[in-house]
Design brief:
10 helices; 5-stranded mixed beta sheet; 42% helix; Nucleotidyltransferase, domain 5; binds zinc ion; binds 5'-O-[(R)-(carboxyoxy)(hydroxy)phosphoryl]adenosine
Length: 339
């Protein structure tokens, strides 16, 4: 079964052709980083406008790269939530137009389920059930993935997402957008023990996260240095900060592994590209004799191939939308789209 997948939830316009949920026949991404870099972050209106300009060409290229025509496409999968609403609407409306004009079933996909599904592409043997840590720019979730379309959230961030916390600290350190990625690169040789950031105390659920205290501590540290006229010590602050964020992610993941006996643990989302997180998670999973699955680096960030992978399983489950499909800026990962 061939799916054309479309992703436009943030600043990447993506289209891909995916066969049977696992085989990526093409994967095209038009990145807007060079433009948003000028503003230090994503400007939503610019993102929507660029999606409008790019989406048709990106879809055409995805079909051409896969050497397939639209009449060989069995379903169109599209990210319909969560994300920047103006950005999502471009992809959703384009997909609706194609679906309607060519009479092809339309499959709405939750963006974070897509991130989890990037692992099905990179790891052909992976099947639910498993536990997943989903770490992106806007979300930090610990999820019990019971089957391909049944999700139970067991922990979530109470404030900032891990990616957001990385991006803000990177910005304070004067590193360019996208901050998390550039901080990872710039601080790889830094002394991660040089600075201490507070480990968050979260009352209530032992699986919930909080990163705002850590972020504020980093901002204060940088301000303090600036006021004293001291050099910023970017490499060591960045390395210490990444280590602290990763420590929280690993500590909560470890609790979840202990509580929910599992044989498989999955990393997903843009932050899963982080070199320290990948290394520490590998050590943690080894300690607990749990098999760790991670997406290849090229599928960690936003892309349409992962939407095609998840879209296949949503389609199998009969999760097909009609022409009234809407886009939603927020939606929990355990909710199915209304039909
Ligand atoms: O999943 P994603 O591409 O977009 C969203 O759905 O939000 O995640 C983007 C986030 C950004 O915060 C970005 O800085 C972060 O992922 N990121 C990283 C790395 N690569 C991307 N954070 C830390 N280390 C990286 N290597
Ligand atoms: Zn994403």
């Amino acid at each position: 079964m061939n799916l054309l997948a479309i992703e436009s939830s943030c600043d990447d316009t993506g289209a891909a052709v995916v066969t049977d949920g696992r085989e990526v026949r093409s994967n095209v991404v038009a990145s807007q980083v060079p433009e948003h870099i000028l503003y230090g972050g994503v400007v939503p209106e610019i993102a929507s406008r660029r999606h409008c300009e790019n989406i048709s060409g990106v879809c055409k290229k995805a079909l051409a790269d896969a050497d397939i025509s639209l009449n060989q496409i069995d379903a169109i999968a599209v990210t319909a939530a969560p994300g920047l609403i103006g950005a999502l609407l471009v992809g959703v409306n384009f997909a609706k137009g194609l679906s309607y004009s060519h009479n092809i079933p339309l499959v709405p996909v939750h963006h974070l389920r897509g991130h989890v599904a990037s692992n099905y592409i990179s790891n052909p043997d992976l099947e639910p059930p498993f536990l997943a840590l989903v770490v992106s720019g806007g979300h930090t979730h610990l999820v019990n993935v019971k089957d391909y379309t049944t999700y139970e959230v067991i922990g979530r961030t109470r404030d900032d997402a891990a990616g957001e916390a990385m991006d803000k600290a990177a910005r304070m350190l004067g590193l360019p957008y996208p901050g998390g990625l550039n901080m990872d690169k710039a601080c790889v040789n830094g002394d991660a023990k040089k600075y201490q950031f507070p480990f968050p105390r979260v009352d209530g659920s032992e699986f919930d996260f909080s990163f705002s205290g850590m972020k504020t501590a980093a901002i204060n540290l940088v301000h303090n240095k600036q006021q004293k006229g001291e050099p910023l010590d970017i490499e060591n602050i960045g390395a210490s900060y990444i280590k602290s964020v990763v420590k929280v992610l690993c500590a909560k993941s470890e609790k979840a592994m202990e509580r929910y006996t599992t044989q498989r643990f999955v990393l997903a989302g843009g932050v899963s590209a982080n070199s320290v997180l990948r290394r520490e998670m590998a050590a943690l999973c080894k300690k607990h004799s749990v098999k760790l699955y991670m997406p290849e680096l090229r599928y960690c960030g936003d892309n349409a191939a992962m939407i095609g992978a998840q879209g296949y399983y949503e389609y199998q489950k009969g999760h097909i939308a009609d022409i009234n499909l809407n886009a939603y800026a927020t939606m929990d990962i355990d909710i199915d789209f209304a039909r």
